[in-house]
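Section 5: illustrative case.
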C-alpha cells in the first residue's frame, strides 16, 4: 500500500486524458484532491502506447504539490495492461502514488496487478509496496464479486463506481451515464452505491463515485452528488475544473458540522471519563458511543479538508 496517499482526501478526483499534452500541463493548476492521468477510455487506441511516455514525463516534470497522483491503465481484457504498468511505473519515479485498474471483474485481476507491481518495484528501485491500487467496479460481474475484490490486496486504497460502463454492462436504456433517470421512481443506482460502499468500508478503503457526464450542468452535479455524499462516499470524479470546485464543497463537512462534532467529542469524553456515564444529554439530544464514532468521522473528514475548529466565543 502507498502509505502516503492512503488517507489523503479524495473529494474531487480529476480525470486527465494521458494523450493530451495541453491537459497534462494544466493538471497541476486545478485544485483537485486527487488527479489521475488516463491511459484508458479517454485515449484513442492508436494513441495508447505513445501516451505512456507523455504520462510518465508529466509525473516527473510537473509541480504536482502533495495531492494523490494516479495513472489509470487499461483493463486486463485488452492487450495494453502489462505494458502500461511496466513502462509508466518504471519511468515515473517515486512521485506516482497509485495505479487505477478499470473494469475489475474478479479478485484475481487485482492480485495479478499486485504481483506485477512487486516485480516492477523491485527492478526500478522503488520501495516494496510503494504503489497503491484503485479498483473500478463498472460491470455486473465486478459488482457481484465486489466483496472479494475489496479484500484482494493490501495495496488497495479505494474502490470506485463507474456509472457509464456499468449502465452499458447492465444494458440499461440510457445514452448518458452517471445522471438521474427521471422515469425511475427513486435512485436507480441505490443498491449499487450501497453494495460498493459496504464492501469498501469493510476493508478500510475510501469509496469514490464516478463521473457526471453533463459537464456544463454544475447545479445538476451538485444535486446528483448528494446521493453518494449522504451515504458516506469520500468523493467523486471530476471531468473539468468547474466540477472540482463543486465537489470540493459537496464532499466537505460544513464548519458548523465540524465544530459540532468536536463539541460532541468533548462532551462525551467528559461524560465517560469524569462522570463515568455512557449516555448523556447534549443539548436536546442523547449521545452515546455511536455518537462518538459519527463525530469522529466528521472530524477526520474536516481535518483532511483543512478545517480548523472555530474559537468558542
Ligand atoms: C468510468 O470509468 C465510467 O465508466 O463511468
Ligand atoms: Mg469506465
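Designed sequence:
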Amino acid at each position: 500500500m502507498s502509505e502516503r496517499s492512503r488517507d489523503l482526501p479524495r473529494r474531487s478526483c480529476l480525470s486527465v486524458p494521458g494523450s493530451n499534452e495541453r491537459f497534462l500541463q494544466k493538471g497541476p493548476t486545478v485544485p483537485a484532491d486527487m488527479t489521475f492521468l488516463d491511459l484508458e477510455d479517454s485515449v484513442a487506441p492508436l494513441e495508447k502506447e505513445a501516451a505512456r511516455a507523455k504520462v510518465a514525463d508529466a509525473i516527473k516534470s510537473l509541480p504536482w504539490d502533495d495531492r494523490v497522483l494516479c495513472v489509470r491503465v487499461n483493463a486486463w481484457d485488452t492487450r495494453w495492461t502489462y505494458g502500461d504498468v511496466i513502462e509508466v511505473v518504471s519511468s515515473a519515479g517515486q512521485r506516482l502514488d497509485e495505479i487505477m485498474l478499470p473494469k475489475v471483474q474478479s479478485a484475481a485481476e487485482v492480485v495479478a496487478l499486485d504481483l506485477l507491481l512487486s516485480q516492477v518495484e523491485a527492478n526500478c528501485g522503488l520501495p516494496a509496496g510503494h504503489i497503491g491500487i484503485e479498483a473500478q467496479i463498472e460491470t455486473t460481474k465486478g459488482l457481484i464479486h465486489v466483496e472479494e475484490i475489496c479484500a484482494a490486496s493490501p495495496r488497495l486504497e479505494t474502490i470506485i463506481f463507474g456509472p457509464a460502463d456499468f449502465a452499458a454492462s447492465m444494458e440499461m436504456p440510457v445514452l448518458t451515464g452517471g445522471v438521474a433517470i427521471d422515469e425511475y421512481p427513486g435512485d436507480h443506482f441505490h443498491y449499487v452505491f450501497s453494495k460498493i460502499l459496504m464492501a469498501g468500508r469493510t476493508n478500510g478503503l475510501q469509496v469514490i463515485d464516478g463521473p457526471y457526464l453533463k459537464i456544463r450542468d454544475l447545479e445538476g452535479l451538485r444535486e446528483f452528488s448528494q446521493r453518494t455524499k449522504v451515504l458516506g462516499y469520500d468523493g467523486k470524479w471530476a471531468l473539468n475544473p468547474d466540477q472540482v470546485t463543486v465537489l470540493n464543497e459537496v464532499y466537505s463537512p460544513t464548519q458548523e458540522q465540524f465544530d459540532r462534532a468536536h463539541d460532541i467529542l468533548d462532551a462525551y469524553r467528559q461524560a465517560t471519563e469524569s462522570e463515568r456515564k455512557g449516555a448523556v444529554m447534549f443539548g436536546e439530544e442523547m449521545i452515546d458511543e455511536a455518537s462518538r464514532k459519527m463525530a469522529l468521522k466528521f472530524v477526520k473528514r474536516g481535518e483532511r479538508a483543512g478545517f480548523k475548529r472555530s474559537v468558542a466565543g
